[in-house]
Amino acid sequence: MKAxxxxxxxxxAKVTQRGRRVLDMLQKPSEVDLLMAQLPKVGNAKQLxxxxxxxxxxxxGIGRVVALAFAAKGARVVVxxxxxxxxxxxxxxxxxxxxxxxxxxxxxSTEAGAHAVLDQAIQAFGQVDVLINNAAVAGPWGVxxxxxxxxxxxxxxxxxLVGPFxxxxxxxxxxxxxxxxxxxxxxxxxxxxGNHAGILAYGTSKAALEALTRYLANDLGSSGVxxxxxxxxxxxxxxxxxxxxxxxxLLPPAECLVPAFxxxxxxxxxxxxxxxxxxxxxxxxxYAESILASPTAAARRMAYExxxxxxxxxERDPSAFTLMDRAENRYGPSPKAKAVLAQALTPAMLxxxxxxxxxxxxxxxxxEHGLPExxxxxxxxxxxxxxxxxxxFVKPGEEVVSNNPGWFxxxxxxxxxxxxxxxxxxxxRAGNELPHHNLEGILNAIGPRTRLVYLISPSNPEGVTLKHxxxxxxxxxxxxxxPVIVDEAYAEYASDPEMLNTPRLVASSDRTLVGLRTFSKxxxxxxxxxxxxxxxxxxxxxxxxxxxxxxxxxxxxxxxxASLTDMDHRADIHAQFTKERQRLFGALNxxxxxxxxxxxxxxxxxRVAPLPKLIERFQDAxxxxxxxxxxxxxxxxxxxxxxxxxxxxxxxxxxxLS
Length: 658
Fold this sequence. Notes:
The structure is a single chain. The chain is of the alpha/beta class. It has three domains: about 50-300, Rossmann fold, CATH 3.40.50.720; about 335-565, Aspartate Aminotransferase, domain 2 (3-Layer(aba) Sandwich); about 570-655, Aspartate Aminotransferase, domain 1 (Alpha-Beta Complex). The protein is about 45% helix and about 15% strand. The model has no long low-confidence stretch (mean pLDDT about 95).
């Protein structure tokens, strides 16, 4: 009996908790409520007053919502559809709110229907100022492209491409003949972005509609007629509700699209002519999308959050704090590098442009790695080189395969480029196996739209190396021309004898392997911003094409070259670091703290307290470590510093355990 009572009480507690969550959701504004309350304001009602707007496919869905909104702002609206009852209902709705509208029942996918809509608009209102080509059909949905019937495909292309062309043709012809500046708005879809299966006919028709806009814009030139595409994101419509009401109910209402429609109709021609305006990006940042009309409009500046000490923004000053949050070198740069920089501060170095080929550095790198000088590309840090690689080899909507969680910087680069990230979980635990990169999973994830594979060795955040023989076998199974990038930002810290020797494999393999290294970490030159990529010369030639001339200073090249040739400093740093890393692992074992064997200048350590408390305790000591937790909060990233720094960090962990 006691067991049943205990279970009943637990069940009651769970029901109560969920009930509170539901009540909380009912009391707080939803995401949709907040969205609708913050819609961008575009123009004013007078700008649409007396404008004649023809909207095809406006008896329901997005077209109906736009028709009602434009009529409410004084536009004279011509609504169109193939259902007389639905069409009459929209006209009555507009009349009831004091607007003016006529309905034209016609199939605008036919030449006769397109002609009828434009003719009746002119008969009713004497002119056409704006044509919104909204009418469309979904076509064969949820089937593999080649399984769609040819007739269905043709019908989709006719409705979604030929129909808009026919309507645009007649509208533009009338506008030009009557010397009336006008606007044609083609309604595309977010389906043209990214990977979407089972919508071949629909996606093809909308992509072609976007091309139609660009070519029409070229031919129209300065005729006074403007053509633009608007690309709506998913919103709640009758059609979506008929398929899945629950999914449709969670979408924002179609009314949220109205500001973007107002923008493409009212904006100056030079801002929109020939462009594709995204409603989703417009809602995120209306100003940015109106100026850029590109994925950059929804991006944010790639930057770290301001540094805060106990909630107060402070300067990131290494003389005031122990900064260990970005894995910078704790031992400092090479004395030779410092000496070279002091000597290099001459008028010649400061006044004149650097060597555009970075000959001295590439010569030293060639000797270091046993590759020809042509195998190296110099960049403004490896981060800049990653940006080049993604921009050059992966188009928006295409795919990169990498590990999960991976490095946040690479993920940000892909997100800004609107590149799909297919992240394969890192194998932290797999029976008796040590943590590894799950290369078999990476292979299985590679598909026809994969354009790059990105791996990190030692990995971030786990600090685990790729093994040479295992990786060589993996590389042989990768498609020959698929670039595989190995980011080795921390390679110089490693002491694993089995670690991948990327330069050796670049020289011996016929696959497209790219190594990335930086002078920011081991060499202590993060402030100089210099890194390099290496691959077969045919590939590095492609990387040079994307870079900017003189993007690395002569001072940075001189410091990097000196650092590479200071073998004593390199050996000393590696020896000190390796010894200290092993000592730290031993101390963590003594404390009974789980940790991942790392070859990097950091280690994943069991989180011993809630993250805010843990970070606060380190801040009390003036120490900054990464403010992140990993693997469902199981681990934090503990940087590996000098002996004194590691002792302080261990002391803080020890105090949190007591």
